[in-house]
């Protein structure tokens, strides 16, 4: 089991670093670049993994982990990098990136975007494994539900024994909401991100969440997996963990802010 209190306190600091620039213990900084379907995020940590600064921007330049607007993605990464460098008063040189499992063919494109923005990519990993840098579990399944995909990594004795990913994520929830309310996709995204609407929309998107649970069921061995640990922006949906636990029959845990877990884990794996 993870120390959820520790995880929540740490991610809360990362969240604070969006508006507060913290002082690092040295000039050595670790950077994680997360090119997501719904958001692009850059997290900066110091060499002791203390949160220093974070910038994010909503974007629709990727689909299911694959870049569909190279120029748009590059522009956003450059802007976020520039904002952080202004805040930190120094150049950010190295970064780590992560890919949804199964999208390795797009790794070069992700790397080209990072390099085009002025980074040297020093590490590339899969998203659920990056998230486990925060969770630090030895056994269980880390499930990263992002905007485009549901990815999972199964751990045994601290080692990854299986990585899988399928194209169902937050975008699909928004499409269902747009159809149900007869509104544009952009408006559906806003409703989905409004916590006060979650009780209302959960029954509407329940079938999509159940499909995510089916993806998890497809790959986990319930004899060996005693807990499912959620992360990713889509997991911010209130009550999602309860549906997944009911459908899988496996205890399911998520932190208070699952959105920042993976990008922070990516930053932890930046080699300096």
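^ Assign residues to that structure.
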């Amino acid at each position: 089991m993870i120390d959820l209190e520790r995880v929540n306190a740490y991610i809360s600091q990362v969240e604070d670093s969006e508006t507060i620039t913290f002082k690092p213990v040295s000039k050595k900084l670790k950077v994680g670049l997360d090119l997501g379907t719904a958001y692009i995020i850059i997290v900066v940590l110091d060499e002791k993994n203390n949160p220093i600064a974070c910038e994010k921007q909503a974007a629709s330049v990727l689909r299911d982990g694959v870049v569909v607007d190279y120029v748009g993605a590059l522009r956003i990464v450059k802007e976020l990098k520039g904002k952080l460098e202004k805040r930190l008063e120094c150049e950010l040189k190295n970064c780590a990136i992560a890919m949804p499992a199964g999208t390795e063919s797009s790794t070069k494109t992700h790397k080209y975007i990072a390099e085009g923005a002025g980074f040297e990519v020093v590490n590339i990993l899969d998203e659920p494994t990056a998230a486990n840098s925060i969770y630090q579990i030895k056994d269980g399944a880390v499930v990263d539900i992002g905007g485009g995909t549901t990815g999972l990594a199964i751990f045994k004795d601290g080692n990854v024994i299986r990585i899988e990913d399928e194209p169902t994520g937050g975008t699909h929830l928004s499409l269902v909401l747009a159809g149900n309310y007869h509104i544009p996709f952009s408006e559906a995204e806003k409703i989905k991100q409004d916590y006060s609407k979650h009780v209302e929309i959960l029954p509407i998107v329940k079938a999509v969440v159940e499909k995510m649970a089916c993806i998890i069921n497809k790959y986990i061995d319930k004899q060996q997996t005693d807990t499912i640990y959620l992360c990713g922006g889509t997991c911010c949906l209130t009550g999602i963990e309860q549906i997944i636990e009911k459908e899988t029959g496996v205890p399911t845990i998520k932190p208070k802010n699952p959105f920042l877990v993976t990008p922070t884990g990516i930053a932890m794996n930046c080699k300096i």
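Residues 198-219 form the longest helix (22 residues).
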